[in-house]
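User: Hi! I'm working on a homework problem where we have to compare a predicted structure to a textbook description. Could you give me the structure for the chain below?
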Amino acid sequence: MRKHTIKTPLALLSLLCSPALLANEQLTDNTPRLTALSHATLMLSPGEVVENATLLIENNKIKAIVKNNDVPEDAYIIDLSGHTVYPGFIDPFTDYAIEYEREVESTSGPVYEIKRIGGNASNGAIHSEMQWFNYVYPDKEQAKKWIDNGFTSVQSSYLDGIFRGQGVALSLADKKANDIIYKAQTSQFMAFNKGASIQDYPQSLMGSMALIRQTFSDAKWYNENKNKKSISSNIVEFNIAFERLADAKKQTFIFETKNLNNQLRAAKLLNEHEYNGSLIGNGSEYTRLNELKSYPFSLILPLNYPAAPDITDGDSEREVSLSSLRHWERAPSNLAMVADAEIPFALTQHGIDADKFWPRLKLAVTRGLSQEAALAALTTDAAEISGVEHIAGKLKSGYMADLVITDGNIFKDGKIVSMWLQGKEQQVVNRDRSLLDTPYQIQIGELNFDLAIEQSPKLSGTLSSGEQDISLANLDYQSGRLTFSANLSEAGIEGVSRFTLWLDKQGVRGRLLNANNQTLPFGGIKLEPIATSDAANDKALENVNLISKQTSPNVAYGLSAQPKLDKVHIKNATIWTSDKSGVLANSDLIISKGKIEEIGQDLKTPSGYSAIDATGKHVTAGIIDEHSHIALNGGTNEGTDAITSEVRIGDVINPDDIAIYRSLAGGVTTAQLLHGSANPIGGQAQTIQLKWGDTAEQMKFEGAPASIKFALGENVKQSNWGDDYTRRFPQSRIGVKSLFSEAFNEALAYRKAQVNYKKMRSSERRRTVAPQYNYRLEAIAEVLEQTRDVHIHSYVQSEILMFLRLAEAYNFKAGTFTHILEGYKVADEMAKHGAYASTFSDWWAYKFEVYDAIPQNTCLMQDKGVLTSINSDDYEMQRRLNQEAAKSMMYCGMSAEDAWKMITINPAIQLGIADKVGSLVEGKQADIVLWDNQPLSVYAKVDSTWISGRRYFDREQDKIAQIQVAKERAALIQKVLLSDDAHKQGETPIDLTEPEWHCDTHFNAWQQSATGAL
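Assistant: Happy to help. Predicted structure tokens:
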């Protein structure tokens, strides 16, 4: 190594020695530093490797890649023979170095409004104005948990709220904040969880989604109108939260969710606004790869492998779901499957202990993740997500000298020996001492000995020859010089010998001082570790031996493949048409291409069709439930405000809910999922088809009219909510009517303003503040325009009459009164108005406002000309709606045909889908059910259920599935029991079990017990 002398002028030397400057400890050393890391294997980028080359570093940047090791004369040379240099790894999702703590006020009772300070948003979960570079304060000890794993930089944000603010990309170097900020403004961070906000709204998942949607809309409107010199009196108030979202289309968003359904919801929400971003993963992406791949978003994946489920005894085992057992086995394969699906992803340490990161990543590699994909996830892809792809993630001229130096392949058995952060080295393992990790063979005379040294917990070692292991004593090591003593009598060398060895990358040389004080020189070689061949890796993959199935949904009774379109001829059945044809005995029905092709007697089976002999069996249209709350995530009520018409049940459909499968087994094919009854004007409803195994979007009934849930009665006025709920209007039944009127008037004014704005000349519009789009008022305006149907929770006759008159006053038709247990009292008025009724069969006296309920309600309303249906409003009752309908035959003598229509064509008419489903008519959608008995019988069981000609339930297949589920479950339990402790360790999975949602179920109690669910 060459030495250089730098001469310092006397005047400058005098200046440098002045007391004033000596007192300043913040002097920066600007002396150019040129360092050459020579003879190394350089991983320039994933898939791009240069062997035996030099990486030239000048100050804190990479100056050049020197492939022939021709190092400049003035460079300080570090020989890295046998070492590999990787680009520094990047974690794009952290809260590192953010010195901030949000103040939380103590409150009692609901909080409807927050303090407006400094132009902040009106909702306490929106913090998009925050720019976290302002709060960066490096923490050397905190940084260590990343640096020890090879990370040199991170992207950070304060992780609280729905809109969390703009992140910052940081070096992990031990320098002041000014020196470590790589990019001051990176992605906007987001989540569905409102965090520390004391404001009640939102309290449900659909409420969080509605708030995000409205905020995006408001920000767009604000930034388009804030600078208009209005010719009207409208003034756009300053809002810094909206201002920071001005260029949302150019920004990126990092969206954190805790489960797969919410991850897909975040993707859909960002995609509908055409925003760019990345989704924080959860480890179960492998179960829905096609859905994830359909969105243009990268992923940030944690290595959160779940702990083995508790199956120590029969009681605990019964609480463990098959999906939990499957996920425990398959989680380590997640990264490989995501990579195979060609979805770009980065890795994060978030959510796990740092010491688990590399063992889990190496396990993922043994499960099929390529080393190239793993490196990309730590470097190039992570850099792009963090917004630092121009300075980090590669070994390239001009990039930051952020490096990872390893001894061996880091994705197999290699170890990190050194880290470089901004051109400054932090040795993890002393390079000289790393020589002790290598086994050597030395030859003394004609004897060969294997030398092995252990450095932890203290220096120790052995000399081995054949079956002899000789312990070493008095070990000492300094700068490549190893000394020790050993008694080699058993090997034929008398007495205790003293050794001095010099170690280097080429091998070992040394001398021995024997018992006679004679010096004997010797040499040795380095023993190379046995390389793991590709064939050995393939064998390891084969030995993974996954025994779990992967289905859609990935729960018990999920489907391995979606049902195919059936071409079926059902022969000799009793067909309940729910149409003017009535009940047809000994008749045939043919379906193909998802439609009912033909109905008749003695039909010929077309070529290529399967035939089912249904002698003694019955065929009906699929059952339709007007009022259901199954298959929802995160609550059925957003009850925090009196009006929440902006929230959408369609946002929170849960396709994994086993209630879907169970309802199919009861002949149900269609259901309207309604918002609860916590407020007078609730959320938008969603009609779905129970397509088990399909996605949430595929389950939505295409072409079904838009609808919304309104509510009357006790629930909405909070009479049963407790002492804290006394501030929200309305608090009385009469107040409910006032609230409706006020909402309708506001919606009319809102629509009028939009119409007037559109009528303006373009020159006027350029100067006039545009009406602000309001999702809440938009839905109400659609009601008044009769493009959105009302389904209104109701009980008491006075309130039913009130709403009929109110609807007539505002010139719209009330849709369906649901529950309506006093409907028999006002049936004439309902029939005259044209309103529908959907009621219970025989529920009464379960609360004060239903004391007057009677089981003859259905007959009395129907006799007056009110189209009536029976609904469930209950998970279990939905599976036996056939029996609920039959009760009206017992209580009030309704005919079997009319009773059956109450759960088929009548609710189809109420939902506006009667042209497609609800009756068996040629040309209609093939939603049919095959029963083994008269369908209104308590003994009737469903043989098969088709939706659009696809068989989603079959009883014979179900019997097979029960056996298969039991076998798979038993095998997985045995695998857990036979696994060692290492394979059982992991994080406790988030409990995603939700309550059975009902009209009056509130989300907050569940949220508090499962805060990770959002």
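For your comparison, note the following. DSSP finds 30 helices and 44 strands in the chain. Residues 1-28, 532-543 have pLDDT under 50 and may be disordered. Good luck with the assignment!
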